[in-house]
Specification:
Elements lengths: L1 H51 L1 H12 L37 H13 L8
Length: 123
């Protein structure tokens, strides 16, 4: 009889314990997500603070957009290995591209071709 009571108690408590442990796992996952979001918010606040500084904005404009102050001479250094050499104007020859039919001419010709389908012999 004691064994039956113990089995019954285990059967009643098992679903509750399973739910409890599942909720603890969910709580741990949510806490880690909240911490990651907190870190991201701190990074974004630091970015906003950085962009509020005029010196940082000027440095970013110079670096990203190649802006210069009036009176300054901008220079751009290009790697000669990456530069695409342009041919001299004398070596350029003009090639005429074949004339392509207008869209309505192509449409009409496709309609004509579609209408010329040979009739299949009846069997």
């Amino acid at each position: 009889m004691l064994v039956a009571v113990a089995v019954l108690a285990i059967a009643v408590l098992m679903p509750s314990l399973r739910v409890y442990f599942q909720q603890q796992d969910d709580l741990r996952a949510l806490r880690s997500d909240a911490e990651a979001a907190r870190v991201q918010v701190d990074d974004l606040h630091a970015d906003v603070t950085r962009w509020g500084d005029a010196k940082f904005v000027i440095a970013q404009a110079r670096e990203r957009l190649a802006y210069v102050f009036p009176g300054e001479t901008p220079y751009r250094v290009v790697d000669p290995g990456l530069a695409d050499p342009t041919p001299a104007p004398a070596s350029i020859t003009r090639v005429e591209a074949p004339r392509e039919a207008a869209w309505y001419e192509r449409l009409w010709s496709s309609i004509q071709v579609a209408g010329e389908v040979a009739a299949e012999p009846a069997s």
